[in-house]
Amino acid sequence: MAMSAVARETVFALRRQIAKIEGTLPERLQAPAGGMPIDASGLGTTVIRRGLAVGSADAFLRTGIEGLDTALGGGLPRAALSEIHGLETRDAGAVAGFALSLVSLILKEKQGLPMLWVGTSEIFHEAGLPYARGLHALFGIEPEQLLFSEAPKLLDALWIAEEAARMTAFAAVILEIRGSPRLLDLTATRRLHARAQNAGRPLLLLRQAGEADPTAAPVRLIVSAAPAANRETVAGPLAGSIGRPAFKVDIGKSRTALPGQFTLEWNPNEHAFAERTENPVAVVPASQRGADSAPASGAVLAFPAVGSPASGDQPSRQQHPAHRSPRRAG
Description:
Elements: H1 2-21, E1 28-29, E2 48-49, E3 60-61, H2 66-71, E4 76-77, E5 81-86, H3 92-109, E6 115-120, H4 121-127, H5 132-139, E7 146-151, H6 154-165, E8 173-178, H7 186-199, E9 203-208, E10 219-225, E11 231-233, E12 236-238, E13 246-254, E14 261-267, E15 272-275
Parallel strand pairs: 5-9, 5-10, 6-7, 6-8, 8-9
Antiparallel strand pairs: 1-2, 3-4, 10-13, 11-12, 13-14, 14-15
């Protein structure tokens, strides 16, 4: 019991040190009501709650997925910097689609307000821009509600996002960054987070193909594409069809959550998320060099040895294969 208490204090001190490094020192640390739960390792799970996490329920944007919202302490913070991270360039579409899904949820409550998407020329040329008709069909976002600001340099994009984050005229601000630039450090993200808190508006930081560097964002979600399930019909799933967009969402960092993974589908008709627990595709076994080698071959059939053919069966001179005749030199 004494060792468990010492271990809890050690973990508690380490988390405080990490919070200091990231510039997000918790204002209040408390255990959940009813005592501290014990995990499989025998150590208590300490829940870190800071400022917004102990506020009212309307301080969070709920995704509608009970497990994810509970893990995040109520949902994504509305007045804060939230990081949505794509580990590879090919995840840019999934990251943008997930961000637009969140914007669709935000715009349901902020009727008539536009949102601003800020990025550099590099990121827009690499990942492209959202399609206007797709915005309305999939997310219910009118084209005039989505404004873009293309900056020639990252420094300019950071300045635009910082100034836009302090304005209440926008329902939300998106800042899309590629890679792990030095300018996107703790100081820059602290300013963005502070502006979002003061304005009471969410600021989504989309990071493409970069390392999970420390930022001031209270929440980091790692998003990638998930296989789409078959399209549902009256007669059942339609084999070989492509259903709703799906995302694999990992909780990379959160003040109140342990690491977890969720597979979400976006319903373009209801503009809402739904959780999927089944894998819609068959799992392909690994190569024979891995742990799951290919199954052994079936029965082996042996043919009797064939003796030398009879003289009458020998082919004529004209019928001998060409490779048996001597080649001409020179």
